[in-house]
Amino acid sequence: xxxxxxxxxxxxxxxxxxxxxxxxxxxxxxxxxxxxxxxxxxxxxxxxxxxxxxxxxxxxxxxxxxxxxxxxxxxxxxxxxxxxxxxxxxxxxxxxxxxxxxxxxxxxxxxxxxxxxxxxxxxxxxxxxxxxxxxxxxxxxxxxxxxxxxxxxxxxxxxxxxxxxxxxxxxxxxxxxxxxxxxxxxxxxxxxxxxxxxxxxxxxxxxxxxxxxxxxxxxxxxxxxxxxxxxxxxxxxxxxxxxxxxxxxxxxxxxxxxxxxxxxxxxxxxxxxxxxxxxxxxxxxxxxxxxxxxxxxxxxxxxxxxxxxxx
Length: 311
Ligand code: THU
What we know:
Blueprint: E1 2-5, H1 13-29, E2 37-44, H2 46-57, E3 65-69, E4 83-91, H3 92-102, H4 106-121, H5 129-145, H6 160-164, E5 166-168, E6 175-177, H7 190-199, E7 213-218, E8 223-227, H8 240-250, E9 256-262, H9 272-279, E10 286-290, E11 296-300, H10 301-304
Parallel strand pairs: 1-2, 2-4, 9-10
Antiparallel strand pairs: 3-4, 5-6, 7-8, 7-9, 10-11
Helix pairs in contact: 1-4, 3-4, 4-5
The protein binds tetrahydrodeoxyuridine (THU).
């Protein structure tokens, strides 16, 4: 396995070690020979990743990681001597910020972004709910394999005792230490927000230009997304939150744990009608919004709609 590094901002040895082990596992699990495989890694500034995102993905914003696969499908790989899987680009400033926000180490965040990207190079994706589930599960498997799973940072702190006390996160299936009983505010809704952030790309908002994505987490751990869909007859428009509720209910789900709402165009907090619609399914649903800094804000629906109407 070879990870080709750019000249600048090389990760330290410890992170390199984690990345090598993770990449070898991802590659061999995909049926490729790690000894023939190479991945290129660049660690860049916020300005650089913003520019790459704009130029290659037509998305005009800073992001944490970008993946540029060499092969559209692994079937294209023949009998070559060296398999160059593609390029991983990580913004270390964003990784550092995210690590702080989510309360884990920089090395865990950096390695997680790397694993996510390597899986993209190997053909994993998160556009469809099923493939998203599969990709998340694989990420967790790899992070656990290298000893950097969520809740245990840094790796040395991971002891057999803690392992036996581990229980499963309802949303991702990630291992969490049992003694960490999280209050709603402490629960990591980052993945849920990622769903909302991905969904927003399908928002149809030609009139307001205000794009919104929502991701609704059900009691059984499924996630339903929705976007705002506007109409020339303005009143016929629907908000992202209600689209997500309609998708979940149409699929037979009515028990909701949390909803994440995201807009790249400004603060998105559920409007009054959406609050009332959510209230129908319980006033303790957590409402997760994203502040301008990227930090998540979590509150209970009851605090956003005191004395909501119920029959
Ligand atoms: N919108 C939502 O989708 N969710 C909210 O929480 C607030 C507003 C949409 C409705 C409309 O398409 C656009 O944002 C501007 O109001």
